[in-house]
Amino acid sequence: MAPKRKLQNHTEERKSKKAKFILDSDIFTPSTRQGVVLVTGQNDVGQLGLGDEVMEKSRLALLELNDKEIVDICAGGMHTVCLTKDGKVFTFGCNDEGALGRKTDEEENSEYRPGQVELPGQVIQISAGDSHTVALLEDGKVFAWGTFRDTHGNMGLTTSGNERFPYEIIKDIPIVKVASGENHIVFLSKFGQVYTCGNGEQGQLGRTSERHSGRDGRGGMSKAQREKLLKPALINVKPSLRLHFENIWCGSCGTYVKASGTDDIYVFGLNNYGQLGLNHRGQQYTPAHSKIFSEQKIVEISGGVHHTLALNAIGNTFAIGRHEYGRLGLGEDSKDADELTKIPKLSDLKVITISAGSCTSFAVTDKGGLFCWGMGTSGQLGTGNDEDCLEPTLVAGKQLEHRSVVKVSSGGQHTVVLAVTTNNNKSDE
């Protein structure tokens, strides 16, 4: 009698026909271009790293980092994060809820100066929100510290509460990119999947219903609900769409994800001023296709509280959302924008990167110029005064005379810039 065939053979054959989706390993190549760090805006809690005697700067000031080779910078709500060429993380600013990830109580005012965070490996990416910080290691592990907040107050970073030191926030899933909103984190896995955690009140997690997104119900937030929000989980995408993703970005209370192999952008979160590019107002709790964003071949998105900036493949910069304080850069007579609107003052320039703060906007050109617009109340635009800029304005000053800007990050009331030297044929690289 002939032996029976093993069903396992058919199973293995089916598996081999359906290869697992994997993103290219070099899709997010870590930057190695090192430069100096320039800062401007509020320093009331040390977020500029200039010591406790400086309360505010209205022009870019050089941050002394003792020859540390900085390749990336990130401005949180009231703190700042710097990444060195050899994968070390330095933080400074407000540490009330653990956003610095290190001890600051042993030495007086140590939060006002850059200090190193102890991490179990080399870091290749950083992100920061209002009161949290995230570090992606070269092995795909992610560590975070600090806390999330919602309209009722502190949520904690995990179900245990605040995490004052690095905590491995997502396990057994290789991550290739992280992004932070004010109070949520977004993770892109090697397999093209998107995970989120944190505050979901405005729909920014993309996986909770309106009823289960906050703690407004009787008795507040249950332990199960708290765990659901704080533990990273997949966004709620219809299985029938068979989507994989290749990029992620955050606004203060919104999330933008790009479908792999297409120009399609899906969005979720706060849309009360149309900042997500959807034709309704309010919150979007599950991923929705944004036709407005998908039509422009977008390569970078950065969102503030009520506005969004977008950059396309040929270097054009667009804005959408609320116009107050000039944050859209569309001029004195502008109104709220329901469509992605090209910014006229930048139309003849090629922009290479953008950054939106709470009510501010920045663009860096291929020539190393830095343009700012929006709210200037605390000197965060770096123009030398506290006036709002209604259109993109070139940032000038002593610290930029012989330097070219490569990156900018704008937080709540401060801004951080990475620049390289261009004079005498020398470079900070």
From TrEMBL:
Any Pfam family the entry gives: WD40_RLD
TM annotation in the entry: none
Ranges for the RCC repeats: 35-86, 87-139, 140-191, 192-261, 263-314, 315-367, 368-421
Region (Disordered) location: 202-224
Basic and acidic residues: compositionally biased ranges: 208-224
Span of domain RCC1-like: 37-417
Keywords: Guanine-nucleotide releasing factor, Repeat
Keyword Repeat attributed: yes
PANTHER family found in the cross-reference section: REGULATOR OF CHROMOSOME CONDENSATION (PTHR45982:SF1)
Name under which the protein is recorded: RCC1-like domain-containing protein
Species name: Cryptolaemus montrouzieri
